[in-house]
Design a protein that fits this description.
The structure holds two protein chains of two kinds. By secondary structure, chain A is an alpha+beta fold. Chain A has helices at about 5-15, 25-30, 35-40, 60-75, 125-130, 150-155, 165, 210-215, 245-260, 275-285, 300-315, 325-330, 365-380, 420-440, 455-460, 465-480, 495-510, and strands at about 20, 55, 75-80, 95-100, 105-110, 115-120, 135-140, 175-180, 185-190, 220-230, 235-245, 265-270, 290-295, 320, 355-360, 360-365, 385-390, 395, 395-400, 400, 410, 415, 445. Chain A contains 17 helices and 23 strands. Chain A has an eight-stranded antiparallel beta sheet with strand order 14-11-13-12-20-21-16-23. In chain A, strands 5, 6, 7, 8, 9 and 10 form a six-stranded antiparallel beta sheet that branches. In chain A, a hairpin with a 5-residue loop joins β8 and β9 (about 185-190). In chain A, α1 (about 5-15) packs antiparallel against α4 and α14 (about 420-440) crosses α17 (about 495-510). The radius of gyration of chain A is 23 Å and the shape is globular. Chain B is of the alpha/beta class. Chain B has three domains: about 1-85 and about 120-140, no CATH class; about 160-285, Rossmann fold (3-Layer(aba) Sandwich); about 295-410, Rossmann fold (3-Layer(aba) Sandwich). Chain B has 22 helices and eight strands. In chain B, α4 (about 45-55) crosses α8, α11 (about 190-205) crosses α22 and α13 (about 230-245) packs across α14 (about 255-270). The chains are: A alpha+beta, B alpha/beta. Chains A and B meet through α2 and α5 of A and α1, α2, α4, α5 and α7 of B. The structure holds flavin-adenine dinucleotide and iron/sulfur cluster (SF4) (2 copies). One iron/sulfur cluster binds near residues 33, 35, 46, 77 and 123 of chain B.
Chain lengths: ~500, ~425
């Protein structure tokens, strides 16, 4: 149902008029999220419409009241955290957007269960700033270099942030959640199912309810409070760099270093695209660069860890490169706990360029095979990418970063295009979908399960029907009016444009 | 539409949220956008402005009075641009804020333009949207009044031109000299303690300087408000009268005048036949050359970086050098400070269009000053001084607020 004046007034009644906006410019300001490329690649008519009203609750009770009201009036609701995820903003049916960024209170650090409790809209930056007072931090920092993401946003988007190589994905650091269900009821998970509990633990009191909400793109409920594991802040950390004879050897070396427990984070940069010549000139043709980050609480252990890493690297014919130390000296260590990017990083790709990114979670060991297929797509369209004055070429590249502690890698493939040029954006749209299709064909997993027009069309055609049915049934049960993050993860209509690209790809392949 | 000129830049915004409210104590940021802190919604941030601009450029959204009202709430403090500079954290760690200041020149020399240092020009995008609103007659009433005063009287207050140098009566200051003191409207009409202190210091240093009876507004309020043609007329007039006065060096005390004369004038009239300096640079030189000798002052002070002088013009060191040259003065830095400094709320004509918002932003500064234990808050901008003074009074903060020149004059016993 469309948002009426009465509904706006009722929302104001819940949160106060200062926390509601419905002017058209506000709607549009909330009508985009993540890098603009999502929006700019699409025809204006294909984009999701901006929300009609934006509301900023500050308490769980307010969120609950909003959901009850939305249910009564059958108004669609979209949840927004930091708004930097790769999704498109708003629901096709417009409705209410709940901006969670004022649910940002740090509530407490519990020394007994070593957990942090905070409102779910808190940013990773603020949370860690607070925790530092207790000498602890979150294991995973939610998202690389951008501490403006909210904890709940990262949890719902399955973001693999820094620290994942040792501490796992952000979701693996959750002990408990408080969630407002689409119909407005408030539930808690894990040990907190027992209302008397003062202990924060996830795997107890029955099924792991937290797991149902994590990575769900917000379709099953709105996280209002989170409890996260913490760990003491390390005193020693170093980035060490090696180059290896080839991509495959490099991932085997990193995999061994990780499985022996010596690293917190890693990056593998294969010699392809814009970095091919540079890496070739620095380390020899075809040699990729790897960076691994260590951390420990004692210098002796740190040195011992580095010695073990060196042994493993040598076994794989790795050559130590000074870059890691240089990055640390520059304050650009891979596992840095502050904003290292600076907003306009994409400006370095230009002038007149932005980046398109496709991301997936892959097993580290077989990533080279998948990435080679992606690189073939990148090469096919190379002429259409934007020229970078700084890097002296047309930009595309791929990399691997730790996604979890179990040999899973986060694999972004990036290319640049000129978003103000119609031809360039049309081609970019095609390249994105060819890349995604190539990835998912190989059986790999979507990172941003909520990204609708992007990953969803590729993923959904591959879901096994029973599992998809289960997801739908849970959705129908929890959200009988289908109002919350409608169309996220479980699409309700086909993606014809993407389907057409896939069909064209397939017919080209048949011809070949 | 003027905003279309920025199409490439608008599309370039990564929507990374960094310019909204990051907390990053390694780089000294407590929060970023002062207006977001007050108004809590996306349209009041640079990221929101850029999203709005994108939708205007693409035709989905039209300008309206409501949108104009939103756009005139930005203080143009450029905190958003500061955090948007690529790799800025690393650069700060390696070479401090100074590295970021010299980086444009350095990267130009490397043949890669200024891109290593360029943020999304969010403030320019905002100002272009304001100018579009003016073209469509949508700007808020107080802004229309301000522009009309500028048009009629060549100052934002509607005061008589002859009153602009009333403060100089009896001081025997000529109208022609190689060095011209350009007080600007706010000091000349509303903060005469600043102009008087400046004049006394210059005289005591033995500097022969002029002030101009027909000095018009520098143009900054007009450019901020989106009245570009009016601003350009003010600029051309001032350049003419400065030329006639034989100016080789123009001394400003107001950071907005300084920024406009130094950065914007050459874009409008080409290379200037005179040099433009801020009083803090000149004071630093005079102290170094021994031409002025500040006496001892036993006070604990803290310094507020005016946005236009600090973030926009990169001048952080000079005012501190002057303060540190005063024996006995104990300068304690606020947190956040320098490039992360919290705006006073008055800029971008917010003081005219939304005075309540301006003072609310300034009141956020009070606890930051109090944390330092300073008895005196020093700044070097008349608008900052006025707004910070008002905030301190409202909050019964118990510290005084002074301009740098007042402190120097006091230390010299002037
Ligand atoms: C320049 C740039 C670089 C990036 N780099 C990385 C990277 O390196 N690694 C990475 O993982 N990501 C990266 N991202 C993506 C983004 O940073 C992450 O997805 C981030 O975790 C999103 O957090 P957010 O708070 O902005 O969430 P949003 O984008 O606001 O929301 C993400 C999802 O969570 C849902 N949601 C938000 N809050 C709640 C809640 N309280 N309850 C239920 N559902 C909720 C939303 O509906 C949406 O489906 C990058 C983004 C940008 C713009
Ligand atoms: S203006 Fe800069 S810092 Fe702000 S969202 Fe855009 S790219 Fe990020
Ligand atoms: S200039 Fe200042 S007030 Fe305006 S958007 Fe940027 S940070 Fe906010």
């Amino acid at each position: 149902m469309a948002v009426t004046k009465k509904l706006v007034e009722d929302l104001e009644g819940i949160v106060g008029s200062k926390y509601v906006m419905d002017q058209d410019f506000a709607q549009y300001a909330y009508g985009a999220a993540g890098i603009f490329f999502m929006n700019t690649m699409m025809e204006v008519s294909d984009r999701s419409a901006p929300p009609e009203v934006i509301v900023k609750p500050r308490t769980t009770e307010e969120v609950s009241e909003i959901m009850k009201l939305a249910n009564e009036t059958k108004t669609p609701v979209t949840i927004r955290g930091g708004g930097e995820g790769y999704w498109i903003g708003g629901s096709k049916d417009r409705g209410i957007m709940i901006d969670m960024t004022d649910m940002k209170k740090f509530i407490e650090y519990d020394e007994v269960s070593r957990t942090a409790r905070a409102q779910a809209g808190i940013t990773w930056g603020t949370l860690n700033e607070e925790l530092e007072k207790y000498g602890v931090g979150t294991g995973n920092y939610g998202t690389h270099g951008l501490l403006g993401a909210c904890v709940a946003g990262s949890l719902n988007a399955d973001s693999p942030g820094p620290g994942g190589g040792k501490y796992g994905m952000p979701g693996e650091n959750v002990t408990n959640l408080e969630v407002v269900l689409p119909t407005g009821e408030i539930v808690r998970t894990g040990s907190l199912l027992n209302e008397e509990s003062k202990f924060n633990f996830r795997y107890c009191n029955g099924p792991d309810l937290a797991g149902m909400f994590i990575g769900s793109g917000g379709i099953y409920g709105i996280m209002t409070e989170v409890w996260l594991k913490t760990r003491p802040l390390y005193e020693h950390s170093e980035t060490v760099g090696y180059s290896y004879p080839d991509f495959d050897t490099a991932v085997h070396a990193v995999n061994e270093i990780q499985s022996d427990g010596y690293l917190t984070e890693y990056a593998v940069v294969p010699p392809a695209g814009i970095v091919e010549d540079l890496l070739g000139a620095m380390f020899g043709k075809g040699r990729p660069l790897t960076l691994v980050v260590t951390e420990s609480h004692s210098e002796t252990i740190e040195e011992a860890q580095k010695a073990e890493i060196d042994k493993i690297a040598k076994k794989y014919d790795g050559r130590l490169v000074g870059l890691g130390g240089l990055l640390d000296a520059l304050g650009f260590g891979l596992y840095d706990r502050h904003e290292f990017l600076g907003g306009n990083m994409l400006g370095l790709l230009g002038p007149n360029a932005t980046a398109a990114v496709t991301c997936s979670i892959q097993p580290l060991l077989t990533a080279p095979e998948v990435m080679e297929a992606e690189f073939a797509v990148c090469r096919k369209y190379e002429d259409s990418y934007a020229y970078s004055r700084l890097l002296g070429g047309k930009v595309w590249l791929g990399a691997l970063i730790a996604a979890g502690e179990l040999g899973a890698a986060y694999a972004p493939t990036v290319f640049s295009f000129d978003p103000s040029n119609d031809e360039s954006r049309k081609t970019a749209y095609r390249v994105v979908h060819e890349l995604l299709e190539v990835k998912w064909r190989t059986g790999y997993a979507t990172q941003f399960s909520n990204t609708r027009e992007w990953e969803t069309p590729h993923v959904v055609r591959r879901y096994d029907p029973q599992s998809l049915e289960l997801m739908k049934k849970i959705k129908e049960t929890l959200d009988p009016n289908n109002i919350l993050n409608r169309d996220f993860v479980i699409p309700t209509s086909p993606y014809e444009k993407v389907d057409k690209i896939i069909a064209e790809m397939e017919s080209e392949e048949v011809k070949k | 539409m003027r905003v279309e000129e920025y199409k490439h830049e608008i599309y370039g915004c990564a929507h990374c949220t960094v310019c909204r409210d990051i907390v990053d104590h390694v780089r000294g940021w407590k929060e970023v956008c002062p207006v977001y802190k007050q108004l809590r919604f996306q349209p009041y941030t640079a990221m929101g402005h850029n999203t709005i601009a994108l939708n205007i450029v693409e035709g989905g959204l039209k300008y309206s009075e409501e949108l104009a009202d939103c756009l005139y709430k930005c203080t143009t403090c450029a905190a958003c641009e500061e955090v948007c500079k690529p790799l800025s954290a690393i650069l700060e760690e390696v070479g401090g804020a100074e590295l970021k200041i010299v980086l444009p020149t350095l990267s130009e020399a490397l043949g890669i333009g200024t891109m290593l240092a360029d943020p999304i020009p969010s403030v320019a995008i905002l100002k272009a949207m304001r100018a579009d609103c003016v073209d469509l007659g949508l700007d808020p009433e107080p802004i229309k009044k301000l522009a009309s005063a500028l048009e009629r009287t060549h100052n934002p207050y509607g005061e008589a031109q002859e009153d602009k140098i009333k403060w100089a009566e009896g001081l025997n200051i000529p109208e022609k000299a190689k060095i011209v003191f350009f007080p600007g409207c706010e000091p000349a009409y509303r903060a005469q303690e600043i102009v008087l202190a400046t004049a006394k210091i210059l005289k005591s240093a033995g500097i022969e300087f002029a002030v101009l009876g027909d000095e018009w507004c520098c143009g900054n309020p007009a450019f901020d408000a989106g009245y570009i043609d009016l601003g350009e007329r003010l600029v051309r007039h001032n350049v003419e009268v400065l030329k006639k006065a034989g100016a080789e060096k123009v001394v400003t005390t107001c950071p907005a005048c300084y920024k406009t004369l130094k950065n914007d004038y050459p874009k409008i009239v080409g290379e200037l036949p005179f040099e433009v300096v801020h009083i803090s640079e000149l004071l630093e030189d005079l102290i170094r050359e021994g031409k002025i000798k500040p006496g001892a002052m036993r006070e604990k002070i803290t310094y507020h970086d005016p946005c236009q002088l600090g973030r926009v013009m990169g001048m952080y060191r000079e005012p501190r050098a002057v303060l540190n040259a005063i024996p006995g003065l104990n300068l304690v830095e606020m947190y956040p400070t320098r490039q992360a400094s919290w705006c006073c709320g008055a800029g971008g004509e917010v003081i005219a269009s939304n005075p309540g918002l301006a003072v609310n932003i300034a009141m956020e500064k009070v606890p930051l000053v109090q944390e330092t234990g300073a008895d005196l808050l020093v700044t070097t901008c008349p608008a900052c001084k006025r707004n910070l003074e008002l905030a301190a009074k409202r909050k019964k903060a118990g510290y005084k607020v002074k301009d740098l020149v007042e402190v120097v004059a006091q230390s010299m016993g002037l």
